């Protein structure tokens, strides 16, 4: 086996083979070839190895490690992708258009917190009707539990979840059930513990609140960019993942003529042609710039979709009345209607939270709605609240039902956060498990101070390092069968089934989509279908713009007749009209 490593910084590189936790073993000198070092060794699948730079005797893991069974500070382990026996050869993938996405965190989706225990719950997702499972980051990070965004070895699967073979078993099991898999990846920063890439080469450029950022446009950045793109292609090719969710791409500092995102999109499209299945790139972006999801032929970056926080914020304010922080701008009476029509609320308009104008308008005549993911909740919008409280902690069941109806009857790609479909009462809180006491205390203190600045009492903030915080955040799988939860779950299934059976509901055309509202009522026009909702307010008639011919689905006090629907507070009716 040939071991190679990009290391332009050190003047000498050795590799230590079969060391126990990297502390002993046999050292081999590596040969330099430009900025790369190589060594022929009698290693194979399952062999531990680590690098020694210059005369430092501290062994370091491989920056391109595929397996870290001893954690991020231990040696890497050689891993042969060809050794896994896949059963998904007939899998042809899924296109995002018309799909439903389900976001989950492996460590809290089940009580076991592993890929194998997650497989046991996949049939629930099939019965629900989702088509994409979006898995929060599974790259190797320091500690046993965490959100995954503090990863430092991006190609190695977190060992406490089961390691690389277990992740492949999970993907294989998803494909067997017709579920595509999206993986959340983080290229805008590395975590605060175990980030030693700069010992090898000029990987880093600056620090953020989250950790060191990558050198994407400075001297030596060609190989750093290659490092990112190879990592992305590895998940898609070697782990058979169907797409990537790119975390916080607005934090990628890249001033090159061809942005990293465009370069990545070109590489992924080429791989998609090779493996003959759709591969999807979904950005999380705070820029409100449709250029990200505009085709390269039209001057865009060519990503396939993006999370759309403006849609979330408008729905959240309409459902909860909360107007603190970035929710303030969405308190305007027309905010929900305006955002549903054009995807972005801030489209070259004033943002009081930012103190400046923000965003650019979406061309609704050319951009399809499916390129924007809409959601009532996600890991950020729940977990970055002081107590990790879900909508179900504040919003009555009828209003949750109305929110779900708007989500699934919109022209956007709907996304659900795990447990949302039954109104889970378990919170989803911020947690970590850094072994370093000083770092753990810094995270604990910093978290409390951050929330104090936003108006929460420090006492409201759970200790992120307390194992009880993780335990509270795990789903309770007894809830779906209980009264109240059972009915909401049935509604989600019905809405997803209608979305699948009625082409009007998956039509992504934004220029023919209409939504009207006044006060507490809202009507979405989807071809011959009308979704009439009342979020709170008083009972009354809601005009639907046509003669009601048939009622497809209702919740709460709802009665249709003539050209209107009579709705009580927190009720909806989905009807067919002439």
Automatic annotation (TrEMBL):
<feature type="active site" description="Proton donor">
    <location>
        <position position="284"/>
    </location>
</feature>
<keyword id="KW-0963">Cytoplasm</keyword>
<dbReference type="GO" id="GO:0033942">
    <property type="term" value="F:4-alpha-D-(1-&gt;4)-alpha-D-glucanotrehalose trehalohydrolase activity"/>
</dbReference>
<dbReference type="InterPro" id="IPR013783">
    <property type="entry name" value="Ig-like_fold"/>
</dbReference>
<dbReference type="Pfam" id="PF00128">
    <property type="entry name" value="Alpha-amylase"/>
</dbReference>
<comment type="similarity">
    <text>Belongs to the glycosyl hydrolase 13 family.</text>
</comment>
<dbReference type="InterPro" id="IPR017853">
    <property type="entry name" value="GH"/>
</dbReference>
<dbReference type="GO" id="GO:0005992">
    <property type="term" value="P:trehalose biosynthetic process"/>
</dbReference>
<feature type="binding site">
    <location>
        <begin position="309"/>
        <end position="313"/>
    </location>
    <ligand>
        <name>substrate</name>
    </ligand>
</feature>
<feature type="domain" description="Glycosyl hydrolase family 13 catalytic">
    <location>
        <begin position="82"/>
        <end position="453"/>
    </location>
</feature>
<keyword id="KW-0326">Glycosidase</keyword>
<feature type="site" description="Transition state stabilizer">
    <location>
        <position position="380"/>
    </location>
</feature>
<dbReference type="InterPro" id="IPR014756">
    <property type="entry name" value="Ig_E-set"/>
</dbReference>
<dbReference type="InterPro" id="IPR012768">
    <property type="entry name" value="Trehalose_TreZ"/>
</dbReference>
<feature type="binding site">
    <location>
        <begin position="379"/>
        <end position="384"/>
    </location>
    <ligand>
        <name>substrate</name>
    </ligand>
</feature>
<keyword id="KW-0378">Hydrolase</keyword>
<comment type="pathway">
    <text>Glycan biosynthesis; trehalose biosynthesis.</text>
</comment>
<protein>
    <recommendedName>
        <fullName>Malto-oligosyltrehalose trehalohydrolase</fullName>
        <ecNumber>3.2.1.141</ecNumber>
    </recommendedName>
</protein>
<feature type="active site" description="Nucleophile">
    <location>
        <position position="247"/>
    </location>
</feature>
<dbReference type="InterPro" id="IPR006047">
    <property type="entry name" value="GH13_cat_dom"/>
</dbReference>
<dbReference type="GO" id="GO:0005737">
    <property type="term" value="C:cytoplasm"/>
</dbReference>
<dbReference type="InterPro" id="IPR044901">
    <property type="entry name" value="Trehalose_TreZ_E-set_sf"/>
</dbReference>
<keyword id="KW-0119">Carbohydrate metabolism</keyword>
<feature type="binding site">
    <location>
        <begin position="245"/>
        <end position="250"/>
    </location>
    <ligand>
        <name>substrate</name>
    </ligand>
</feature>
